[in-house]
């Protein structure tokens, strides 16, 4: 028997989730040798990801969206990776590396029914990347940067790209990929050490939006493409300063995720979408083919061409690390290590 800790969705928040109230660490005994696999596999997690989109799943079933709400009283689902401890599936042997959308637990039973949903798969790791990197730069956040730039933004050499939340999981990868392709890259972040990191990885212009006017920076460097992760007032500034026929890659609006719906910022410059003939397009990364990303990104990380910054928490808490990520207190990709 082992003690198996999980991060449980305990209650629906109206604003920011409160650790220990809306999210809770719960421990249960697990018989690793005897637990019913329901025709599937038992995975011992080695790393898991905290991502802003997870806040959108912390809702009641009456609110519809592109994804399902988390189940009250059950572990969150998260992008995670681990090692198969037991298997009832011939094609998934013990010891295999399994990555996908998994229950946020130290040990997770993935039933045959869940395997049939194709939410995870066996992967190889020939580059020997860290477990945390497999769910970060080489996982969904890195793929989000890739798909956003190439499928949605359709970036070209000579473009000027502005990235909001640029030191985060997606922004830091997007900026470096864009520099590889010959773009001028501008990034905003919320602290001076994050700005210094952006300069280290090659951003042409990097600034602290808390101490420097975003409006003034973008007036000096009007973008042709924006990778937008923040929303709110920043989006208004983007609409005011982006060049005509610009493209906005709508990836998120993290500034508004913890704000009750009726108090969210009302964007005022939407008419500029028409008058500047802009293209503003959102996307769900899982709807896009990631074959080229999967073949390319691990090698770029392994050879040092893409540098990464991770904010690693050890083990499962009561949701404090998740809240830190939502409120910008992380520095780099927020991940949990179980090693």
Automatic annotation (TrEMBL):
InterPro entries hit by this protein: ADH-like_C, ADH_N_2, ER, GroES-like_sf, MDR_fam, NAD(P)-bd_dom_sf
Entry annotated with the keyword Oxidoreductase: yes
Chain ranges of the Enoyl reductase (ER) domain: 74-336
Gene3D superfamilies, alphabetized: Medium-chain alcohol dehydrogenases, catalytic domain, NAD(P)-binding Rossmann-like Domain
Chain coiled-coil ranges: none
Molecular function as annotated in GO: oxidoreductase activity, acting on the CH-CH group of donors, NAD or NADP as acceptor
Protein keywords: Oxidoreductase
Name assigned to this protein: NAD(P)-binding protein
Organism: Rhodotorula diobovata
